[in-house]
Amino acid sequence: MLEIKNLQVSLEEEDKQILKGVDLSIGEGEVHAIMGPNGSGKSTTSYVLSGKDGYEVTDGSAKLNGNDLLDMEPEERAAAGLFLAFQYPVEIPGVGNMTFLRTAVNSQRKARGEDELSAGEFLKVVREKAKALKIDADMLKRPVNVGFSGGEKKRNEILQMAMLEPKMCVLDETDSGLDVDAMKLVAEGVNALRDGKRSFLVITHYQRLLDHIKPDVVHIMANGRIIKSGGPELALEVENNGYADLLEETA
Amino acid sequence: MPATALTELDREITLPAAGVWGTKSRKDALARLTAMGLPNHRDEYWKYTRPETLTSATPTPAAIFDGNDEAPMFDAIDCLQITFIDGVFDADASDDLEMAGVSIERLATAMENDIHWAKDLYGTLETNGQNPVQRPLAALNSATATDGVVIHATGQAAKPVLIRYLHQNETSDAVLHHVIKLDDGAALTVLETGPAAARLNKVMEVDQGNEARFNHVCTQGRDHARRAVTHIFARLATESRFKSFTLTANGVLTRNECIIEITGDDAFAHVAGAALGDGDFHHDDTVFITHDAVNCESRQVFKKVLRNGATGVFQGKILVQPDAQKTDGYQISQALLLDDDSQFLAKPELEIYADDVACSHGSTTGAIDETALFYLRSRGVEKDEAQDLLVLSFLAEAIGEIEDEVLADEIQSRLESWLKRHSS
Ligand SMILES: Nc1ncnc2c1ncn2[C@@H]1O[C@H](COP(=O)(O)OP(=O)(O)O)[C@@H](O)[C@H]1O
Ligand SMILES: [Mg+2]
After folding, report:
1. Is A100 in Cβ contact with B379 (below 8 Å)?
2. In chain A, fewer beta carbons within 10 Å around the N or the C end?
3. Does residue B187 belong to the interface with chain A, where contact is any CB pair within 8 Å?
């Protein structure tokens, strides 16, 4: 599904290397987690995959089902099946959440040569998926993320993901700032999308999210590299011992 | 009526024939104008907008624009329709001027009637509005207006009055003056649409009695080459409500002035505008709201989207007189520049002489928010469409000032069409 090889990335503005050769291979239907201390390059990885400006790829490649992601515009990557749930979802005053969702869904359908959904069809699907995430009609009507609580913003990200039905979902610290109940709701939303084909890359700082979204593989990222990969037990090790031991081990 | 040659004004001014009071009003206006002189680019109030093409004896010709790719503005709304073609009333293209709750006449007809109510209003609010800042082009209008309507709302108007201004002659020079009086408790909506002429000088005087409600939505057409200077002068009595919104898309030169004096307690005045300019576009909103009563609210909300070297200007003032306690004044003027060639010049002002007031103002110039743009694109929205959404997001606060949902939707759909036509 997702094939990242020796990805090296620097900032465009200053001469600073952030990713120093990341390798990652996620198969169809797999759930991978990336953990690591703050500033290790987790968000940067997700941004470079989805095409944010400001980064320069100096070496390596990233492919989604064989297609070179790095060669595409952000919207093309989305239409190809990539989705990033943002660490900090953006507020867009004056644009209704529903309008936004419909524009996004239909843009992707158009890009893939599919018919646009009618207003009626769309509404039906949205209502159903919103209900599962406890997103009420009012939240759908309000401007995108404006005045949403932290938990509401994250649920709204998952709703977008559910509506867009991507092949490869990247979740950047979707658990940050959530209480236990909100986190469960979000995890249920994610688990509902697991269908044996769709793949996930879950970026998190804490192990607790992984109690709810069970990963197949856990990677530890530090200083722009993946320094260790293993099974779910690796997350528990981090939880119990912190990153210090791991960092020393590989230093 | 003889032409009056004025060396001070550098141009000849002809006072159109009118009845007794009309003639007197015009002469008074000419005297005001002569004392002030026509504006020029050295005047402080015209620092950002050059008035020469608005004051010249003849207008710069303006190509006729064919806007038939869109349905006429406000087409779906049930209105009493009044049509001016190149600044001249056209009876055939207008409805009968009969409607419950209001009486409507042509200005010339009213001026022939020696005891007409408009006698005390025509040029009066304009005169009041000359202080403390002079507005010579409004005095020029009162002196020389050739047409217009006078509307007297005595109760709740049965329908909105829609004034359509068609432009069919490349060299037309329209000078229109409307006088609107709302009795206590009366309610009226006036819609205006169209470029009017190659050059338009328009004044609208609105006098609102106690608890009178005036609602105004104006769109200035899509012509690129036309020039316009417009003034609204409004006087608000106790518990009256004034709301005005103007959409300006295209137009090589526009100066819209709105001068409001709030004289009765518990009244409110909301003025808003959205302007969209691409290339050779200069748009100036100049607003002056005077609070002279207790517990009144005023809002000024102006947003401009500028690209390819377009210029936006905002000069807005809230003046709070010593006795105008509990004034709530809000003013926001913002420009979204879609490139580095465009510019926004703003002069927001507060002048407050009362101590118990809450006034705020803000003015910003910004570009498209790259983070938001990326967010939308990461959801699959194409770059152009994502930018359009962010432009609409930027304009939303101004559109939100339109209370009537049908009107707001109509304006919104025109904005969307404009953005589609002017994509990058
Ligand atoms: N746009 C940027 N400007 C400056 N520094 C950046 C930028 N993006 C990332 N960085 C730096 O790159 C490093 C990795 O950041 P990030 O990917 O956000 O880490 P993580 O998500 O693992 O906490 C940090 O040192 C951060 O300060
Ligand atoms: Mg991060």
Report:
1. yes
2. C
3. no
Q: Could you tell me the pTM of the whole model? A: 0.93
Measure CB to CB from residue B378 to each of A50, A94, A111 and give the nearest one. Answer: A50
CA angle centred on A73, ends A67 and A78, rounded to 5°: 70
What is the phi/psi pair of residue B106, to 5°?
Answer: -75, 145
The C-alpha atoms of residue A238 and residue A218 are separated, in whole angstroms, by 11
How far CA B408 is from CA of B80, B253, B306, B399, in Å, comes to 19, 25, 21, 6
Nearest to B384 by CA among B421, B409, B414, B411: B421
Contacts of B383 (CB under 8 A, 6+ apart): A73, A75, B373, B377
* Euclidean distance between CA atoms A3 and A67, whole angstroms: 10
- A103 and B CB contact within 8 Å: yes
Question: Domain tally for chain A?
Answer: 1
> In 3-state terms, what secondary structure has residue A72?
coil
Q: What is the CATH number of the domain that holds A244?
A: 3.40.50.300
Residues of B in contact with A53 (CB under 8 A): 370, 374
Residues forming a β-bridge with A222: A225
Write out the residue range of the structural domain in which residue A194 sits.
2-250
